[in-house]
From TrEMBL:
<keyword id="KW-0808">Transferase</keyword>
<dbReference type="InterPro" id="IPR009212">
    <property type="entry name" value="Methylthioribose_kinase"/>
</dbReference>
<keyword id="KW-0547">Nucleotide-binding</keyword>
<comment type="pathway">
    <text>Amino-acid biosynthesis; L-methionine biosynthesis via salvage pathway; S-methyl-5-thio-alpha-D-ribose 1-phosphate from S-methyl-5'-thioadenosine (hydrolase route): step 2/2.</text>
</comment>
<feature type="binding site">
    <location>
        <position position="229"/>
    </location>
    <ligand>
        <name>substrate</name>
    </ligand>
</feature>
<protein>
    <recommendedName>
        <fullName>Methylthioribose kinase</fullName>
        <ecNumber>2.7.1.100</ecNumber>
    </recommendedName>
</protein>
<comment type="similarity">
    <text>Belongs to the methylthioribose kinase family.</text>
</comment>
<dbReference type="InterPro" id="IPR002575">
    <property type="entry name" value="Aminoglycoside_PTrfase"/>
</dbReference>
<keyword id="KW-0067">ATP-binding</keyword>
<comment type="subunit">
    <text>Homodimer.</text>
</comment>
<dbReference type="InterPro" id="IPR011009">
    <property type="entry name" value="Kinase-like_dom_sf"/>
</dbReference>
<comment type="function">
    <text>Catalyzes the phosphorylation of methylthioribose into methylthioribose-1-phosphate.</text>
</comment>
<feature type="binding site">
    <location>
        <position position="40"/>
    </location>
    <ligand>
        <name>ATP</name>
    </ligand>
</feature>
<keyword id="KW-0028">Amino-acid biosynthesis</keyword>
<feature type="domain" description="Aminoglycoside phosphotransferase">
    <location>
        <begin position="33"/>
        <end position="267"/>
    </location>
</feature>
<feature type="binding site">
    <location>
        <position position="57"/>
    </location>
    <ligand>
        <name>ATP</name>
    </ligand>
</feature>
<keyword id="KW-0418">Kinase</keyword>
Length: 399
């Protein structure tokens, strides 16, 4: 077992040579630290021709975007690598390939995705990837079905619930999604012009009760091995390709959390587009984003039902009609978690480029207002929005 130390650029090259599985390891000569997320170091490793060949990612023992005052478990690297390996087993086409990992160093080596771009950045620029939503729905269906009680042996499922118990990372989500946006909190950040709207969230009893229910289900519904942080910044896209990365928030939780997080990020982009693009381009891009929302859900739902019909192993859960009934519960959760993602990304700590890139402060406040009101509507109306058409209609009504 190696002892933990924080990697330098040279360490990362050395490590990639040893564990990258490259035929000519000595051709790897340099690296660049490119991590722009909140938590980790990420090194791209280059060969002599300056071609990026492989990625080395290391967890730091604290939250990178805050500093050493917020310590964080290194075990998240094990969770990330093992979740991605399991998701890769069930959905290899859309899961980044983990080539090697070392729990003691909290390091993993993974395939280079330089031929791809981060989906969020592309959405901010108004660049469309018509196949991405169907592929994301496929990833969600495959990973969530195959790790659930529909498919897993009950002993294996229970062992995996223990193996993927992830208290520190779940605690971040529990605070950032379900508590802080509904309190006065030093980590919150939103346009001052929206103070009264945000203050109303704190005193809205019906909303707070719904959020309590969503948090309770997040805490206790061990339905499937979630990615735990499915947002457009954790998804690489290229022409006809989509790869999900960054599963350190993985744990056994409610399926609707992953699906709702995915839809919530698409809808944040929808709300932000008028602040990012000229009016005609923004209108076109908004329609495409709504298509993405529809396609992601449909691809997930159809994929899940097809897998359930064909591959359910549990005799009781295989009873005709049960999978569809369960999917209706996932839909209601999806709407609720989608709403909490919209609110936590605009009121809470984890702001996103879709909003941050908007230059005009008045426009930014208007886009954030839309995201907050849409989030609130979805949380409150989750039990009454019957299907994807009704969701799209609600989004349009919101503005
Ligand atoms: C302190 S971590 C803040 C956020 O960044 C991650 O990507 C997760 O979304 C988390 O909520
Ligand atoms: Mg991440």
């Amino acid at each position: 077992m190696s002892q933990y130390r924080t990697f330098t650029a040279a360490d990362a090259v050395e490590y990639a040579r040893e564990f990258g599985g490259i035929a000519d390891p000595q051709s790897l000569v340099s690296s660049q630290e490119i991590g722009d997320g909140n938590l980790n170091l990420v090194f791209k490793i280059f060969d002599r021709d300056d071609v990026s060949r492989i990625v080395v990612k290391q967890a730091l023992p604290y939250v990178r975007c805050v500093g050493e005052s917020w310590p964080l478990t290194l075990d998240r690297a094990r969770i990330e690598a093992e979740v991605l390996q399991i998701h890769g087993q069930f959905c290899p086409a859309h899961t980044v390939k983990i080539l090697h990992y070392d729990p003691a160093l909290a390091v993993m080596v993974m395939e280079d995705l330089s031929s791809h771009a981060i989906w969020r950045g592309e959405q901010v620029k108004g660049i469309d990837y018509p196949q991405a939503a169907a592929q994301l729905g496929e990833y969600l269906a495959q990973t969530l079905f195959h790790t659930s009680d529909f498919y897993q042996h009950p002993y294996q499922k229970k062992a995996d619930v223990i193996r993927f118990t992830n208290p520190e990372l779940c605690d971040i989500t529990e605070e950032l999604f379900f508590n802080e946006p509904y309190e006065v909190h030093e980590r919150n950040g939103y346009p001052r012009a929206l103070e009264s709207l945000v203050a109303q969230l704190r005193t809205d009893d019906e909303l707070r009760q719904k959020v309590a229910g969503l948090k309770h289900r997040f805490l206790s519904n061990a339905e499937a091995l979630l990615h735990g942080d499915v947002h457009s910044g954790s998804i690489f896209v290229a022409e006809n390709s989509l790869k999900v990365i960054d599963a350190e928030f993985g744990f056994y939780g409610p399926m609707g959390f992953d699906v709702g997080s995915a839809l919530g990020n698409l809808l944040i982009n929808y709300c932000a587009l008028p602040g990012l693009l000229a009016p005609r381009e923004a209108a076109d891009a908004r329609e495409k984003r709504l298509d993405d929302v529809r396609t992601t859900w449909q691809s997930f739902a159809e994929g899940f039902l097809a897998l359930a019909a064909e591959k359910t192993r549990d005799r009781a859960l295989a009873y005709p009609g049960y999978a569809a009934e369960f999917l209706a519960k996932v839909w209601r959760d999806t709407l609720g978690y989608c709403g909490t993602e919209l609110i936590r990304r605009t009121v809470g700590m984890s702001q996103v480029a879709d909003i941050k890139t908007i230059q005009d402060e008045v426009m930014k406040a208007e886009c954030v207002r839309q995201a907050i009101t849409l989030g609130r509507t979805l949380i409150l109306a989750a039990d009454h929005v019957e299907n994807i058409d009704a969701l799209i209609a609600r989004v349009r009504q919101n503005g």
